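BUG: 3D viewer hangs when loading the predicted structure for this chain

Environment: internal workstation, default settings.
Expected: structure renders.
Actual: progress bar stalls at 90%.

Input used:
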Amino acid sequence: MFDFFGTLTAAIQRGPAHRSIARSLGCDPDVFFQALDRTFYARASGRCGPPGEVLRRIAEEQGGQPDRPALIRAVIARIDAVERDVRLRPEAVPVLSAIRTLGLRTAVVSDCWYELPAFFSRLAVAPLLDARAFSYTVGHCKPHPRIYQAACGLLSVPPARCLYIGDGGSRELSGARRLGMTVVRLAAEDLGSHLTFDAEREWDGACVGDLTQLLPHLV
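Structure tokens produced before the viewer hung:
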């Protein structure tokens, strides 16, 4: 099982399109980003309602008064903005392809809002992953067991037979280990600038510097 942001992708940072979206809603971008960060887990678990309503509430808290067309444009623009933020690690496709040749099944397990499910199928890694467990559709974020269990169910594999790799955001590593998974941390050099939440700073388990180093853990 692979985490997505920061694991299959290089470190994530908000690109300039996000600032334009904030301004289109009548918001100061930095204050808007603070509100997004503060509400990340509620949004990513689907507890805040439809995306347009969430953006409307955040904007109105800051004095913005976006109309319905502006909110629709912002919802669509966020999909494009997040997709532009994504740069797959160069080894992601080769490693997933190598795992497939071993006859092993794979899944992506990601905390995300509505954007990632909207564009994921367009990514080069999509056809190489057998299952997708997105927090927004599962209704739970990591480290809640339900999101890992959802992926296990889609793979028809018990947790004890799974290996999980992630950068440590959302305390995902300890969450996977509590379910009995083999867990490996990706400690890539670029992750110091990665946009993450509730990062797992202390980890006493296995670590790799890039995804290619994962392969020996699978045989």
